[in-house]
Amino acid sequence: MSWKIFTKFFWVTVGVAITALGLDLFLVPNKIAAGGTSGIATILHHMTGVPVGLTMLALDVPLYALGIYRLGLGFGLRSLYGSVSLALLVDLFSLYVPVPTRDPLLAGLFGGVLVGLGLGLVFRFRGTTGGTDLAAAILRTYTGMNIGMLLFVIDGMVVVAAGIVFQSWELALYALITIFVTTRVIDIVQEGISYAKAFFIISDHTGIIADRILHDLGRGATAFTGRGLFTGNHREVILTVVGRSEVTRLKEMVYEIDPRAFIMVADVREVLGEGFKEYGRGKGM
């Protein structure tokens, strides 16, 4: 096994373990069924006492069979490691970990953070845990619907079912909070926290501004031609990316040169290349 493959499986395993802890510490004991097969398993666990991990695995087996039939052998097997290890760790950790809180809001928030962090690591290193992701991919072959929309529908049905079974719409609302937190944390883990800003600068003095960016800030810049739809005039637009500490300095620099300049600033989640970070550093291969 190559080092890259080992690294990938190591971080997928870490992600699965964190996800299992989020379920066992916060979500399952507090009846928060935040979508997915884990949500269904949480409902069935509190109804019948069947272990959550075993239920998750039982739900995934027919999905794998159908997934291999509809999507090919590779797709189904790709999910197998993450799904099996998650099911095993959920049932293993449930025997030993304490329940730190019975407050459903705290449980929903912290459970969402842990599950999001764990799944984010799994996805970042190109793993998957099967479950409703696999179900959505299968349904897409029948319906043609967008996978994101299918996931929303499936998770919504699980949340509604939890509200009915537990006779508490408050728990269903807490589950929605958990889903929101989970998805946001997954995005942060995969894309990173915004640490840079992209500037689009439109000015009659782009040459001077570009020179100051290159020599005073030491940043690169790209100029491309745009046409104002109101005036019909062609003007150069400068695109540059700077660190957060350089934002105010660049604004002052531009308006010192051209008080009438138009600036648009946007968050940048990740920047690869000279002056920032190299591709592959800290990412799954």
Automatic annotation (TrEMBL):
The UniProt keyword set, sorted, is: Cell membrane, Membrane, Transmembrane, Transmembrane helix
Q: How does this protein sit in the membrane? A: Multi-pass membrane protein
Pfam families with a match to the protein in the record? DUF2179 (PF10035), YitT_membrane (PF02588)
| Location (main, coarse) | membrane
Query: Does Membrane count among this protein's keywords?
Result: yes
Write the protein's name: Uncharacterized membrane-anchored protein YitT (DUF2179 family)
Residue stretches spanning the membrane = 9-28, 48-68, 80-99, 105-123, 144-165, 171-189
**Could you tell me where this protein is found in the cell?**
Cell membrane
